[in-house]
Sequence to fold (355 residues):
Amino acid sequence: MTGRDALAVCLLAALAGGCARKEAEVPRFALDQCARVTLVDETTGAAITGAEDLDIDRKVGRIFISAYDRRSAEAAAARRDKIMPQGGVYAIDIAALASGAASFKLRSLVDPSMIKGGLRPHGIAFDPASGELAFINRGYAAEGKAWRRQIDLITVDPDRPLEAKAARADCAANDVTAKDGRWAMTLDHGGCGWRAALEDITGARGGRVIDAAGDEILSGLGFANGAVTAADDTIVVAATRERTLRVIDGEAGATLVKLNAAPDNLTLSDDGRIVAAVHPNLLSLGAQRKLGLGRSPSRVVEIGLPGGEQRLLFDDPKNALISAATVAIRTADLLVIGSVIDAGLVVCRERPASP
Fold:
């Protein structure tokens, strides 16, 4: 091929989508390997919506689910309803999810009546060393005829859930992870209310990671979101607006891992890789989450540390199965995906090995 012919081919390819563009990566789990699973609250009979975060207890073989309908709760608060919608903290056996069943009834591990301000869990983490479960609770306290947001860190033994303990948390608390027997939290903004809105508009990086005593571990993050403690005991945190992960080493500071989409919640795979639900389009996510407009693409990636090599696990650009995925658990031959907005879960299964 002559140089002129090559140029012509390149120009034609550019018009069709780019001469040098790499072929699209094939996800480990295709859409036809996945199915929606309906979850129903056994006490209320309502569909469980907004399973925003998940964590896993590999020893017992169960997945913990943190869920509540955020848009419903926010609308009720704005209307000053006397009764506010609540959510739940649930556990489901991994074997049950692997069975192929399409629907499950679950009872919240934590009784909503036990939690001051109501049970609305956001973010969740299980500490296999202590057997303790923790989550950020977004309660509401009555202030005159209005509702004021009340944020607490709730800790509980999932096998003795009547002994839940609450401690007041920062208004911007987003997620929690266990490190060295203590809880660390992400703060997605440097403030709340108009300060948080201003931070979003200006792109200021006010997100932080703090320990349970409130001492700063890392600052200067563009929306500090999900966090997980890796196999080497480093904390990995998602900086959503930056489209990066920060790997926090107490002695060396924090290293940066760049992603091609905005990371949300993080979990560990069976072999210690970081599993991240990522948002390809933050604008569509914001429109759906805040305004109820449209739907958002979903994607899940797996990241190896310390090198940062990435692999695509799941991709649903047209939200055929799930919109705005915010978390995923990878264990054995399953991928379990939750969303801050959609109802239920999506469960994917690897294809059987060829004989």
Observations:
- The chain has one domain: 25-349.
- Confidence is low (pLDDT under 50) at residues 1-21.
